[in-house]
Specification:
By secondary structure, the chain is an alpha/beta fold. It has one domain. The chain is built from 2 helices and 6 strands, in the order ββαβαβββ.
Length: 113
């Protein structure tokens, strides 16, 4: 007989308890339907212009999320050269979309905040 007893105290919980498993920490970002719609709406305004996707250098989670954005754009017919990794001061955090100096658009994906 296997009698497992778990006593868990949770303060400012960010994960969940399922079948004896405790998840702690931030959940990896994934593209939500709302984020996808906003991204494609923004990209549509720049149809035919250069699209750049960058992520924080050395941050695997940031790179993975940026790659999801690149895939979303490519699946919907946009040309994206790749996901560039950059190092910035101060460090890049969060998600930013903006126009580049050459009239294209840039998706900047930093570390989770």
């Amino acid at each position: 007989m296997n009698d497992n007893t778990f006593n868990v105290n949770s303060y400012n919980q960010q994960g969940g308890i399922t079948a004896g498993q405790v998840n702690i920490g931030k959940v990896k970002r994934r593209i939500s339907p709302a984020f996808a719609a906003q991204t494609l709406d923004f990209a549509h305004k720049y149809q035919g212009r250069k699209i750049r996707v960058i992520s924080a250098m050395g941050d695997a989670e940031s790179f993975n999320f940026a790659t999801q954005i690149k895939s979303l754009l490519e699946f919907n017919g946009y040309k994206v050269d790749g996901v560039d990794q950059v190092m910035t001061v101060p460090p890049l955090t969060g998600e930013h979309i903006g126009e580049t100096q050459d009239g294209g658009i840039e998706f900047r994906i930093g570390s989770q905040v």
